[in-house]
Design a protein that fits this description.
heterotrimer; A alpha+beta (about 230); B alpha+beta (about 280); C alpha+beta (about 240); A: about 230 residues; alpha+beta; Ribosomal Protein S5, domain 2; 5-stranded mixed beta sheet; about 35% helix; B: about 280 residues; 6-stranded mixed beta sheet; 4-stranded antiparallel beta sheet; about 30% strand; elongated; rRNA processing (chain C); exosome (chain C); RNA binding (chain C); nucleus (chain C); cytoplasm (chain C)
């Protein structure tokens, strides 16, 4: 079955990103895949409130704001998903008694929002210069009703899918995913197939991010090199 | 310390010193707007406005609901703005001042109560089904003058928005999928745009257009005038601060008239660019 | 230029090449030569060295020091660095000063040139000071002083009155500290002005007239992404406009 937007099954939508476009935030990034678009802003390390500060490490706080309407439990769930994904990858012990605040704003959701949010946050953390163990990249797959598996599904494809799977991986570590979210009915074989497809897709996302970050660093380092 | 702290003494003193000489610390003249960038799309009803270092995103959406019983033939317009901590650290906390509430209320009033949107055109079946149009305004970056940026973003998003087409057959209303039939724009009477001024000095005798965050922190009073493209006044707002003379209000109105035309032109261009 | 290496968090840094070279030249002092010193942006994880921030990888072959130079906007205090801060509160023995880092810095009342118990400066909240970080670690609040405690002289530190202060990225601030910063050199050729650069991303400038101060401030802010030649051009245009 061909996809409505004529993509190959394993093809991502056109990726787009920009780094550091926000002035107030200590780091920010916008990440888009097709029409799905997310902005992530970072404040940190900043002073944590006394009752939440941890004496041996930084506290990581995530806020997720939907594009339409007030935040719901679904968005709270997204917040904890992002926090759990990044909490172990941020070298929090380097900045004890501080707070790293991540604010994620959905600009437009057209499927695969959770992976876009993770990718945007990964870029924003790099832009903010928060020490990270590695880059985190995510991708989503959907198993459609005719058993075909597609990467980076649109909302239309997700609505018609039997199951959807999002995986986030740490760059350069073959230890398995940092984050898995599978919904719907699926067989173990389908899950494994999605795992492999997402792992491949995240490699492409990482290559894309690397180019974007290299561009930013080159631009900023121009004078120091001259 | 990431939370909002006031400007330092030398920033405040220098700003006033510069204003006395008719200049501003960012190099602008007192009646200059910052660089305004408006982009619409790719989906209907999405507009992003960049006003200097201020950035605001507006998103318009709609759904079919029951009308209010006392207004069976009118659609519903919902407005939602919230200063998230993305725009500035600590802005969303309980400490957020009344000034921030005032911003939200002002923009809501401008769009809803100036009757910019034709509410009756949103009726599908009287007393049964109407469109609820929802405007979500997200503040991404607070560099001062959120009111103007938010009003421009909201009106651009409303004009960019398309709702699904509907055909009514007796008691049946058929809502056409946007892939079946071209969606239709909202009926908008006029496009109100806010223009904000800040006043300085013990008598408020110095004024600037489009204050930055630093200027907002130092100003003694502010005044927002809302005009539409027909050169009509839709709203005036002077929320506290020191008293101003009627002459100043007159002067502001004259300046605002010219600015509104410029802003409207920019919105037109942005709308045109998104359809091209 | 061609050999500039840009790293991302998680990238494994290959430091072996350097080791082998030194080992071949002086096999006897191998132990000392193979000690690698890691600077900002790098950590050792088990056997390898990996980057934790993005930026340009630098190394000094003499000291075998490696570090990553990136840009950010949130300051993390480090001992010896000059900072521009704003007094946010006064307490018994001194002041609390916002230097843009996670925690406010302490500034003792006696950390000024010539200050004694009887005669010490009286700073109001909102005063801007130029100081040097003397205590900075992850478990204590930072501390700054407005004089050199070894010589007792101010050495340019102290309260900054008049003039204007603005913020910039930490990367730009570090480049401005360099006496050869092209934008400052170009401006200096055209107009006289004073400048105090805090590596915490705050710059204070003062000139004879308000207009010149604004010009200098805007020129410095504009120089963020410009190379030396573009800086000179930009300054030239600004000066001509004046």
């Amino acid at each position: 079955m061909s996809r409505p937007d004529r993509r190959e099954a394993s093809q991502l939508r056109a990726l787009n990103c920009s780094l550091g476009q926000l002035n107030r935030a200590d780091g920010s990034a916008q990440f888009s895949a097709g029409n799905t678009s997310v902005v992530s802003g970072i404040y940190g390390p900043v002073e944590a409130k006394v009752y939440e500060e941890k004496l041996d490490r930084a506290v990581v706080e995530v806020k997720f704001r939907p594009d339409i309407g007030a935040p719901t439990t679904k968005d709270k769930w997204m917040e904890s998903a992002i926090r759990n994904t990044f909490e172990r990858e941020i070298l929090a012990h380097l900045h004890p008694r501080t707070l790293v605040q991540i604010v994620v704003q959905l600009r437009e959701g057209d499927g695969s929002v959770d992976s876009a949010a993770i990718n945007a946050t990964s870029l924003a953390l790099v832009d903010a210069g928060i020490p990270l163990k590695c880059m985190v990249t995510a991708a989503t797959c959907a198993v459609l009703s005719d058993d075909t598996t597609v990467v980076d599904p649109t909302q239309e494809e997700i609505d018609a899918a039997r199951s959807t799977h999002t995986f986030a991986f740490a760059s350069g570590s073959p230890t398995g995913p940092l984050y898995v979210d599978s919904r719907g009915e699926f067989t173990m074989d389908e899950y494994n197939h999605c795992y492999d497809l997402c792992a491949l897709a995240t490699e492409r996302v990482l290559a894309f991010m690397r180019t974007a970050i290299e561009g930013k660093v080159t631009k900023e380092a121009k004078i120091s090199a001259a | 310390m990431g939370a909002e702290i006031g400007p330092s003494n030398i920033e405040a003193a220098f700003l006033l010193e510069a204003l006395k000489k008719g200049t501003r610390v960012d190099g602008r003249g007192i009646y200059d707007y910052r660089t305004l960038k408006i982009s619409c799309g790719p989906t209907y009803g999405l507009a992003e406005v960049q006003l200097g270092q201020t950035r605001v995103l507006a998103r318009v959406s709609c759904e079919v609901t029951r009308p209010f019983p006392d207004r069976p033939t009118e659609g519903i317009v919902l407005f939602n703005t919230e200063l998230s901590s993305m725009a500035g650290f600590g802005l969303d906390s309980s400490r957020s001042s009344t000034q921030e509430v005032a911003i939200s209320r002002m923009v809501e009033r401008v769009i809803k109560q100036s009757r910019a949107i034709d509410a009756e055109a949103l009726c599908i079946l009287a007393g049964e089904k109407v469109w609820t149009v929802r405007i979500d305004v997200h503040f991404l970056d607070h560099g001062g003058n959120l009111i103007d940026a938010a009003s421009i973003a909201a009106i651009a998003a409303l004009r960019h928005f398309r709702r699904p087409d509907v055909t009514v057959d007796g008691e049946e209303a058929i809502i056409h999928d946007v892939r079946e039939r071209n969606p239709v724009p909202l009926s908008i009477h006029h496009t109100p745009i806010c223009v904000t001024f800040g006043f300085f000095g013990s008598a408020g005798d110095m004024l600037v257009l489009d204050p930055t965050l630093l200027e907002e922190q130092v100003q003694v009073s502010s005044f927002t005038i809302t005009l539409n493209s027909h050169r009509e006044i839709c709203a005036l707002n002077k929320a506290g601060g020191i008293p101003l003379s009627p002459d100043q209000i007159q002067r502001c109105t004259q300046v605002a008239l010219a600015k509104v035309d410029e802003v409207n032109e920019k919105i037109q261009l942005a709308l045109k660019a998104s359809t091209a | 230029m061609a050999s500039v290496k840009i790293v991302l968090p998680g990238d494994i840094i290959d430091t072996r090449r350097e080791e082998e070279d030194t080992a071949q030249q002086e096999p006897n002092v191998e132990d000392e030569a193979t000690v690698i010193r890691l600077g900002p942006g790098l950590v050792q994880s088990s056997e390898s060295v990996s980057a934790v921030t993005a930026g340009v990888l630098h190394s000094n072959s003499e000291t075998n020091r490696w570090w990553v130079a990136g840009n950010k906007r949130r300051y993390v205090a480090a001992v010896g660095e000059p900072v521009v801060g704003v007094v946010v509160a006064r307490h018994g023995e001194g002041y609390r000063v916002d230097i843009g880092s996670a925690h406010d810095a302490l500034l003792p009342q006696l950390a000024f040139e010539g200050a004694t118990k009887r005669n010490k400066p009286n700073l109001a909240v909102g005063t801007v000071v130029y100081g040097r970080v003397v205590v900075a670690n992850s478990v204590m609040d930072p501390e700054i002083e407005c004089f050199n405690s070894n010589t007792g002289k101010s050495e340019g530190y102290g309260e900054l009155s008049e003039g204007f202060m603005f913020k910039c990225s930490l990367g730009l601030a570090r480049r401005l500290i360099d006496t050869k910063a092209p934008v400052l050199a170009a401006l200096g050729n055209g107009v006289p002005f004073e400048v105090a650069v805090g590596v915490n991303g705050r710059v204070w400038v003062n000139a004879e007239s308000v207009a010149t101060t604004i010009l200098v401030a805007n020129a410095i802010r504009n120089s963020e992404y410009l190379d030396a030649k573009q800086c000179r051009q930009m300054v030239k245009e600004l000066l001509e406009k004046q």
